[in-house]
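// run 5 | inverse folding | seed 20
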């Protein structure tokens, strides 16, 4: 497996994506790879990094680069952590556990989704590394309260509350591929779409041996864990308001709480007023509202609005180490990578996640050496040029 993921076959995240596409059934790959509606925002999340131009310092002798940072009170060896990605068990048996182990080995944090195929207790048993827990209010307050308590008991050091899922986005690839039929109870639709599984026998065998049909063990209802087909309706009854956020803040108690899904300066201020210690500039990877700006485009606005009162993180579209560097220059404390490591899970399980982390780490170090910068803590707006349209109003002081 390690040889399969080594150069020259795998030299960047795009290569991991290609391998994942070849190994996974179409319905599973498209779940990782797809976005909402016309996927405009999903594409823009990646493209917008091209608008930011690096400004290197010449005649600087290369030195060891310091990538360490502290995020949400957690010391990290890297300026990125693994974002919450739902249903990772679909991509590889025990996918969540393996991703957490790879993150721990790299001395960075792993974020577990409420809608994972593995319980927070099993993830903690698999890895003693830094663990953050992402929360949906699935099943109502009573169910969420128990979920929060389990996360706290398992040693999750931060709670990440997703705020951008008033309803589930229309992910048209999933609809066409019949994902609900495939992952729900036996039906004619399951038989019709099931040929996708049979065309990938190695994946299918692993999926069956890992328990088959998806359940969400972190959402425990009266009759047991929530099933995949129940997620859409449940999300519509689980929309988080800022009043809910205040309640969650009180329930979570000591320790950082994060508002994930912030996309404007105004919402960043609302999050802080509701008790957030950090915000994640995120549009859910372009999987919710299509037609909004790429997250990097919104980062300066949020950083200026927050004005140091909370940590600012970012996710969306990160495929290169230089993308991470650009986000740090524009004020992000760190970034969360999602698809980049999900492709790694799909391509090679734990080894694939490890390779994704190695690729990004090497690219960050190389970019910083070529910039003439020895530490991520020294990165700032002087190392980048951004379009004038980004520098409106009080955002302009980022360049002062």
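// decoded
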């Amino acid at each position: 497996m390690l040889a399969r993921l080594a150069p020259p076959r795998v030299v960047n995240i795009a290569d991991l994506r290609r391998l994942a596409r070849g190994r996974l059934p179409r319905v599973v790959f498209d779940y990782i790879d797809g976005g909402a509606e016309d996927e405009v925002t999903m594409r823009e999340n990646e493209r917008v990094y091209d608008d930011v131009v690096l400004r290197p310092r010449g005649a600087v002798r290369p030195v060891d680069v310091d990538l360490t940072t502290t995020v949400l009170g957690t010391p990290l060896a890297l300026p990125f952590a693994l974002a919450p990605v739902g249903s990772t068990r679909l991509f590889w048996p025990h996918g969540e556990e393996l991703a957490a182990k790879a993150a721990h080995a790299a001395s960075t944090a792993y974020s577990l989704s409420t809608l994972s195929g593995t319980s927070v207790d099993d993830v903690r048993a698999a890895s003693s590394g830094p663990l953050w827990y992402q929360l949906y209010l699935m099943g109502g307050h009573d169910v969420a309260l128990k979920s929060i308590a389990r996360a706290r008991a398992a040693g999750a050091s931060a709670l990440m509350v997703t705020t951008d899922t008033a309803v589930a986005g229309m992910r048209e690839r999933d609809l066409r591929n019949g994902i609900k039929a495939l992952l729900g109870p036996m039906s004619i639709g399951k038989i019709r779409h099931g040929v996708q599984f049979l065309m990938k026998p190695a994946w299918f065998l692993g999926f069956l041996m890992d328990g088959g049909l998806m359940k969400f063990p972190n959402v425990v209802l009266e009759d047991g864990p929530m099933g995949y087909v129940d997620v859409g309706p449940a999300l519509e009854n689980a929309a988080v308001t800022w009043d809910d956020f205040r309640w969650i803040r009180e329930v979570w108690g000591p320790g950082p709480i994060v508002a994930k899904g912030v996309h404007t300066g105004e919402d960043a201020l609302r999050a802080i007023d509701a008790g957030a210690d950090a915000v994640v500039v995120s549009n859910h990877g372009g999987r919710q509202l299509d037609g909004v700006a790429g997250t990097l485009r919104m980062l300066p606005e949020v950083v200026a609005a927050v004005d140091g009162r909370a940590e600012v993180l970012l996710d969306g579209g990160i495929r290169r180490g230089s993308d991470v560097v650009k986000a740090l220059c524009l004020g992000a404390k760190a970034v969360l990578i999602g698809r980049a490591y999900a492709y790694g899970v799909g391509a090679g399980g734990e080894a694939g996640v490890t390779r994704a982390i190695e690729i990004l780490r090497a690219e960050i170090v190389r970019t910083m050496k070529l910039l003439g910068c020895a530490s991520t803590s020294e990165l700032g707006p002087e190392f980048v040029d951004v379009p004038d349209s980004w520098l409106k109003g009080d955002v302009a002081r980022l360049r002062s």
